[in-house]
Amino acid sequence: MGVLESKVPSGPLAEKWDKHKNEINLVNPANKRNIDVIIVGTGLAGGAAAATLAELGYNVKTFCYQDSPRRAHSIAAQGGINAAKNYQGDGDSAYRLFYDTIKGGDYRSREANVYRLAQESVNIIDQCVAQGVPFAREYGGLLDNRSFGGVLVSRTFYAKGQTGQQLLLGAYSAMNRQINRGKIKAYNRHEMLDLVLVDGKARGIIARDLVSGEIQRHSAHAVVLATGGYGNVFFLSTNAMGSNVMASWRAHRRGAFFANPCFTQIHPTCIPVSGEHQSKLTLMSESLRNDGRIWVPKKKEDAVAIREGRLKPTELAEEDRDYYLERRYPAFGNLVPRDVASRAAKERCDAGFGVNKTGEAVYLDFSAAIMRYGKEKALTSGIKNPDEATIKKLGEEIIEAKYGNLFQMYEKIVDQNPYKTPMMIYPAVHYTMGGLWVDYNLQTTIPGCYSAGEANFSDHGANRLGASALMQGLADGYFVLPYTIGDYLSDDIRTGPISTESSEFEQAEKDVQERISKLMSGSGQNSVDYYHKKLGKIMWNKCGMARNEQGLKEAINEISELRKDFWENVKVPGSSEGKNQELEKAGRVADFLELGELFAKDALTRNESCGGHFREEYQTPEGEALRDDENFKFVSAWEYKGEPKDAVLHKEDLVYENIELKTRSYK
Amino acid sequence: MKLFLKIWRQANANSKGKFTEYTLDGIEGDMSFLEMLDILNEDLIAKSEEPVEFDHDCREGICGMCSLQINGEPHGPDRGVTTCQLHMRRFSDGDTIVIEPFRAKAFPVIKDLIVDRSAFDRIQQAGGYVSVNTSGNTIDANAIPIEKENADNAFNAAACIGCGACVAACKNASAMLFTSAKVSQYALLPQGQVEATDRVMSMVKQMDLEGFGNCTNTGACEVECPKGISLENIARMNREYYAASIKG
Amino acid sequence: MSGLIKSSLARKVVMALSGLFLVVFLTQHFVINFTSVIAPETFNEWSHFMGYNPLVQFVLQPILIGGVVIHFIMGFVLEIQNKKARGIGYAKYNGGANAPWTSRNMIITGAVVLAFLGLHFYDFWVHEMDYKYVSGLAEDPTRYHEETVEKFAPFWRTVIYVISFVLLSMHLWHGFNSSFQTMGVNNKYSPAIKTITKLFSVIIPLGFIFIALYHHLNPITH
């Protein structure tokens, strides 16, 4: 298989992980004290890995650009975390979770990794509860579950609409315990600017103290990159403003292959764009699709009347509404996977049925659920012959208990009451399945450089199912990486501390300094945001929910030109000494300008439609994605060769021994 | 709309800051407060002036990074929101808006409107955790049922985003609401019981060491908290603390 | 126990407990004073008992004075610490938006009550000490009512008393209820406690004001 060796253990699927754990090398506790590990990023994957590695005895240094590890963007995940606990007794199992994830990912992920994820999912819930994570519970005191898109069981554990926050605070508390023990040294408000390789192995990083501006060298025996996804290449996304690809991209430039960059998830339920000055998009949890029904008007004239404010959605009769997801996908209805729901919304809006001013929004309507819950509640509370207002009131109370914080958030942003009038939603960039290529041990193609969580490509294929990102981040961090990394570090027990005085560190620091001075010395015509917004527009229009050959070719040229313009004309005010947010942004956008081009190139190479990657040329007559397993059943792993256009494609063929490849159908 | 801004500018931790006035036109109601500042910064960059530095990240009210004192209130005049969730429709044409960093001795200014809240991290490090190894070899998650009311209250306490609005609002710059939220979360769950005594003693000790003020029960913190953390948590922490003191 | 003495929470407890103690004293004081309006004989009887019972004089009185001193000293100490905790102040601080005036200005209402206590001590306590120990006059169980009423003859003194009681009311309005929160009481009974403490903080000072005005308007004519 050439340079890409997945290192998937042999043996039956269900036994691979245990077998592997039994066979890999371990580092004895006394030796762990002599080994340093750097972890960049302190979200679920990074925070969890830091806690476990420190607990095992390694000396850990963590880096995050935020002022505290607790603020990593994992915190914003709303809906929940999947685990094959089968507490509901609805037939769930590790195999079913594995199967759903592979199918949801449109058969573009590695079987063994996904099965391991499903196996570890149950431990995550046990672990988090032991840490004091306050999951939602039923009246009997046991854990509650809800269902999410793309599956037929209830396996999602949640903490209101703040599951990511609670899980991250759990990992952060585990980190705090180790910080208190002196086993983790946390470098907050620090940003990794380069990866340092010594003798071909990752041995440290160059970081910038974002407060003092100081460029620092940090060495370690291994480096873990857990820096999240690159959705901000689109400028507008549900990612945090600071989310960036820099750490991954710097590693890519040093030799780590970048896998499937074009696999991006566009989340169907976000608050629509309101104006030119919008800086980010806000997600409305997918859990809303449990109770909300998605529709647009059946007749174009009604859509036009709504857009012009002449007609209110509540005035439109039931038979004049098109519940297009229920119509097209009767089996899964409003709970189809995210890619399918997003494309269906785009299809309706492109056809002229959009319902907000810009015509880029569909309705998410809770009135049916409100009445249904209201009737149930009236019945169980013994209210006889309740009138409609009473039912509505009771129903609204139940909806509020379930989604109150989301409804409030919506009202704050849009200034409309979603209990009275349907929500308006539209798809937005949310998650990137692509990332650094890693083997079964989560090691990149650079020895000693590991990647965990959203930053790697490993588990979600071409589309991620809801409530699986948290699962992967924590599984990687708590239960996978700390063991697999030992196999590598067992060779380093006699290495001793890595010096930061070597020529490699010196050269890397020089490179970083030069890059900073180059960024600071642009001709000063346009701000960093100007370029970022331009890049975002190209990406959204040509590499977004639907892509075609011509658009992608244009995108490649346009991004390449924009990058050239950026380096010549960007304006970074202030100085590189001390806090300078424009300089921070500039470094990140510079990398997005390279990644964006590789993204388009990857999308252009993949002549099929699968998951979040929809090529207009490859679709069925009904407009469904047309996958090509014969020619594209592989992971694209790109090797850096200077300009993105020169990147070399390596293919990791995906082997399915336990699952039969089928056309994904949610009808 | 047209706005007059009075913004605190301070080059770094050691320099003396001062207010600078700016006028901004063309602001729309749909913009968030931070998007309004983005526009100001684009203007400043175009004029080759240094943009105003402020902390922000998720811009959806959950990371707790944004930290502005707006017209004398943390996160501005709206209730239950962070600065990033405050929208300009809350203001009127011709308004003057005073923007300052959160002020507390324990939150030194880093630059302009950015403050250092690492004191909060240190309070958590003093004991804001359950000492359980992250091996996954724990008991089954459903082995200990937890009364729903306690689980819900623990969640409500755990909803704290650590933004520091409580400290900023408090006339005494007290961190009691923050500290008590974490203490409460664990006090309400069986998993937190084992270390309860040490936890509350260590966290309160660290809180005092950081130089936060004393709680005088004005309730300003609860009103300004974007996540509605209740004063009940402070009472609970007091109880925990007295019990722990008597125990040893 | 050492934690209870050094920490910020300990200082809060001291404030709350000494405050609650003073509330109890205030109630007792009010009950006795009220008899001066409705039953001067009883007033004399009780006053005499309080003035000459050794338990009251040599145990309870020092405790009371100690309570007052601790409450005030701690109040000022906390205020200084709290001011320091802010460091550089806000240019614009809209305290009224999130907390009532009374809760934010306990130091002002407290200081006024303290000043009033000075006058009050001078009026009654110093007088008693002089009567009993300096001048060494004989016991007279019937003198108290007349002495008390006479004190309220001057208009200025009555006005000072009335104003002071208004400020005491404001002090209690926050302080009394707040002490329960400090002691860790915040539960389903809290709304009831709040109502009771707020009623108390209005009714008792109003009662004192009534007594002062009553005596001012009904001087004893010989």
Please tell me about this protein's structure.
Chain A has 18 helices and 19 strands. By secondary structure, chain A is α+β, with helices and mostly antiparallel strands. Among the domains of chain A are: 268-429, Alpha-Beta Complex (Flavocytochrome C3, Chain A, domain 1), CATH 3.90.700; 502-629, Up-down Bundle (Methane Monooxygenase Hydroxylase, Chain G, domain 1). In chain A, the strands form 5 sheets. Chain A has a 5-stranded parallel sheet, sandwiched between helices. Chain A has a 5-stranded antiparallel sheet with strand order 11-15-14-12-13. Chain A has a 4-stranded antiparallel sheet with strand order 16-10-18-19. In chain A, helix 3 packs parallel to helix 13. The radius of gyration of chain A is 25 Å and the shape is globular. Chain B is of the alpha+beta class and 248 residues long. Chain B folds into 2 domains: 3-111, Ubiquitin-like (UB roll); 118-247, Orthogonal Bundle (Fumarate Reductase Iron-sulfur Protein, Chain B, domain 2). Chain B contains 8 helices and 7 strands. Chain B has helices spanning 33-46, 118-125, 148-158, 165-169, 176-187, 196-209, 220-224, 232-247; strands at 3-9, 18-24, 68-70, 73-74, 96-101, 109-111, 114-115. Chain B is elongated. The model of chain B has no long low-confidence stretch (mean pLDDT 96). With 222 residues, chain C is an all-alpha fold. Chain C has one domain (2-85, 100-217): 3 helical TM bundles of succinate and fumarate reductases (Up-down Bundle). Chain C is built from 9 helices and no strands. In chain C, 28% of the residues are buried. At the A-B interface, helix 3, helix 5, helix 6 and helix 12 of A face helix 1, helix 2 and helix 3 of B.
What is the CA–CA distance across the termini of chain A? 37 Å
Summarize the main sheet of chain B: 5 strands, mixed
Order of helices and strands of chain B: EEHEEEEEHHHHHHH
Helix content of chain A: 25-40%
Count of runs of 4 or more consecutive helical residues of chain A = 18
Major β-sheet annotation of chain A: 5 strands, parallel
Q: Give the oligomeric state of the chains in this entry, treating copies of one chain as homo and distinct chains as hetero.
A: heterotrimer
- According to DSSP, the number of beta strands of chain B is 7
Structural class of chain B: alpha+beta
Structural class of chain A: alpha+beta
Tally of alpha and pi helices of chain B: 8
Shape of chain A: globular
